[in-house]
Here is the input.
Amino acid sequence: MWHEGRLVIFFVLTWVQAIVLAQGSSSLFTSYVPLAVRSPYLSAWLNTTNIPFNTTNPFDPNIERAPSRWPLFYGNANQILGWAGLIRVDNVTFKFLGNPGAPGNLNRSILTDLKLTPTRTILNATAGPVDLQITWLSPIEPSDLVAQSLPFSYMSVQVKSNDGQSHSVQVYSDISAEWSSGDRKQAVNWDVITTDQVVFHEQMLQVPQALSETASQALDATTYWGMQQGTGVTYMADTDSNCRNLFANQGSLANTVSSGPLPINNPFTVYAISKSLGSVGSDLTAPVIWGVGMLRDPAVAYLTPGGTVENRDPYWKTAHSTLHDAVTSALLDTSNAFDRSSRLDASILQNAAKVSSNYADLVSVAARQAMAGIETTVSPSNASDIMMFMKDIGASSSNVRVSPVEVLYSSFPSFLFVNASYGGYLLKPLLELSNSSHWTFDYAPQDLGTYPNATGNLEAHNEEVEQTGNMLIMTLAHARASGDGSLISEYYNLLKGWGDYLVANSFPVPSNQLNADQQSKANSTNLAIKGMIGIQALSQISQILNNQADFEHYSTIATTYVNMWRSLALSTDTSTPQHVLSNYGASSSSWVLPYNLFADKWLQTNLIPDTVYSNEEAFLKTLTSSNIDGLSIVNDPTSPSRPGNTAWTLFTAATVNDTSVRDSLILPIWNHVSQNNSGTIFPTNFDLNNQGSANGNNASPGVGGIFAPLALTIPKANIIVPATSGKSASSPSEKKTNVGAIVGGVIAGIVGLGILIFLVIFFWRRSREEQGDTIEKAIIQPGDTVPEVFPYNSVTPHEQLPQASQPTFSTQSPADSNELGSTPVGMFPSSKARSRALPPTPRSTPPMSSSAYSTSDQTASSREPPSRATSSRSRAPTSPISSHEVQGLRVEVENLRRVMQSFQNDRFDPPPEYGHE
Ligand SMILES: *[C@@H]1O[C@H](CO)[C@@H](O)[C@H](O)[C@H]1NC(C)=O
Ligand SMILES: *[C@@H]1O[C@H](CO)[C@@H](O)[C@H](O)[C@H]1NC(C)=O
Ligand SMILES: *[C@@H]1O[C@H](CO)[C@@H](O)[C@H](O)[C@H]1NC(C)=O
Ligand SMILES: *[C@@H]1O[C@H](CO)[C@@H](O)[C@H](O)[C@H]1NC(C)=O
Ligand SMILES: *[C@@H]1O[C@H](CO)[C@@H](O)[C@H](O)[C@H]1NC(C)=O
Ligand SMILES: *[C@@H]1O[C@H](CO)[C@@H](O)[C@H](O)[C@H]1NC(C)=O
Ligand SMILES: *[C@@H]1O[C@H](CO)[C@@H](O)[C@H](O)[C@H]1NC(C)=O
Here is the structure.
């Protein structure tokens, strides 16, 4: 029976058992759910295809249960990532994850609920007389770059009795050596590290190969599997049957470690940790949390402008001097990580729900997939040189590209929404390469090489207008969302060259050019839109840099092109609403999904007249009602193929005002994803001629384009152009000064600074007192129509999150969290602006007192040399004004400084829109 959108089924099995099956907040049920999906290499998924999660008989004991399938790497059938979960209830053992065969008395737990949030997969199951709630968390850490860069995911298990009796319960989980290579014959070595605080397994190839992969699995990762120490925690590294049998027989492990190296699959070695919960009653137990991490160092090889190949560090190295430090932090941070993620999920979902509940579902499926496509790196010689690289996951080629520009473009809304600075970190290497002597073309490159070697793809290509438009649009979108004008300023000459390229090639687009969808169509209308908006983006960039002549020059051209475009690109047959044709001169029965219009809304370039949008919207309304399976990206009567695209459909949905049209664009995507028989991880491409089946780019980070409607709600920041890097914009004459002015200025400055500091402290303290209000205001009220700032912009930054409730955590003042990470999302400018405000810690000294997670002085690993102990962190001395407050003050001073500077630098822009209070 249906009840307020929740499916409630009462089921009477032979032994009379009533089970409530409610689908939680999300009724979407997709073919694969993410378990540990955190980086291009930490990517474990559960195949939920065709599990009988329906009204007929979801609990038929003869039907295979999803939790009893093995997790897979990316969804490749022949790449099982051994990961078993067992629960022992009154001496009877059930499996809740994976499909371990022995011992014979293993029972299957029964799936009762499965739901997704942006960071979590939550599965409920019943194991005889107890119910389990299993949560897989792959954090997204917008306010902490160290945490974001540390690829750790968590599995939490909570249990309660379902029959009113108390039961003796132990839980167990292992991972296998299959995580260490795509070649199962390779030899793996391992170790167990125990300290007072944590226990963890460590596995790696006997002969790791830097920056290399087999079947997409890294050959240079060290994989960790661990837990906090506590009563009833035991561990074991041994063959799969030895570990699992021992647990099934006695409910605990032997605390022994077999010796390697051994081949991955002969015998299968597993790394197990179990915990006894003692007697469990009808209250849900505290969570038992395992952490799984895959750490690589170096992360990416990068061709510098000078021509050397730099092996870049994973960013977490700026805070953790050793792997074991990093792992310990991640394991001690579990409770806080869950807490932060719950807040982030709530915040994202509140915003998404304003569009629709289907939309919120899609965001939940897409978020981890997009974020796991990137790695955050730092130069070993310069801690403020931060870059992110994206892997073209899901690409059919075996040489998977680094930072594919069209996929970056597709996913860019998600990164800007989560933390606009990430957009800058992603663009930086592409801009730097293009600006170097290595890149010899006047259009933008299409990628940076073969992952993880960003050593350049320096050949000519055919996506010239596509990628050049993408780069200009993303560069301005980043500046607008972050307020960071350093990239537009530093690379202005490069951007201008690209603008000139588009001027020469957007009208018409040369016939040999490919678009993002690898289609080549002479006089493509949609590609021309991207070219024209790219030109207008350059015009706006010029305006921000106070370059009036360029502003007018490019704006005039863009407007002229749009007028010419309108005369050729729009249908003339009045039997349907006027719409964008597939190409100039095509018949009126042709059409495209004009997804490139999204950029005009995103950047507020306002290049395309309102009538074009309103006519197109009316046309889309007719199309969606006659194509309920979704719209292909192009409809050309001369070609039968009907390719669909997740991201481009959502880009288009973001441009329409009529919510019924928007919803009817979103619904088919929801249907494709939730039909649960596609047999693939959420794809960007699907084939409408084949019931919307997946058609490539499964698991692509490109699904971040789902965030397009949310990206439109990001407020425009005042863009601060750093005075020193404004090569093209700042006029040298401004630097002329005289001594009198300097002396007067200094005196006025000192007085002013005193007043400023007073005001900042005053308002900052007040705003902290009012913090509860701030959060409440961010919550969306029903019927609220005013576009809201993404609440995460105004939600408390990391350091202000409440303390973990779990007593096992001796939490350090959260104010001690990593400096780079402790600023409000979306409010803070680029790494450059940050490094001005907060000078980077020299890498030779221990990290600031400060690891984002470390919860107390860390005990050195039992197997590490004693000197390690001395490297454990010292605390910042207590001062009258806590570092917590100093941190907040810094942020406020920086904001204030930006506001002041904006009055000087950004005269063309409307008054500041900071005051997020
Ligand atoms: C899943 O488990 C949690 C914790 O026991 C419970 O609150 C929730 O209602 C369960 N969901 C369903 C559908 O049973
Ligand atoms: C529901 O599951 C049963 C197996 O338990 C299957 O035979 C049936 O086709 C499924 N029904 C639907 C509508 O998917
Ligand atoms: C996923 O599960 C379905 C249903 O059991 C099965 O047909 C399919 O082969 C599985 N996919 C992989 C990659 O194992
Ligand atoms: C579990 O096994 C132990 C040892 O064999 C036994 O003492 C205990 O009674 C058993 N518990 C149950 C509930 O069967
Ligand atoms: C990356 O470069 C290294 C060093 O040249 C090489 O060993 C490795 O195979 C390359 N990786 C890929 C994926 O091409
Ligand atoms: C592109 O459109 C222009 C203007 O209609 C036309 O002159 C030109 O022939 C077209 N090019 C191609 C290759 O169709
Ligand atoms: C939606 O409304 C805005 C503001 O009124 C307008 O500029 C835009 O053209 C409209 N779009 C459509 C598709 O009607």
Summary: The longest strand covers residues 269-280. The CA atoms of residues 184 and 890 lie 51 Å apart.
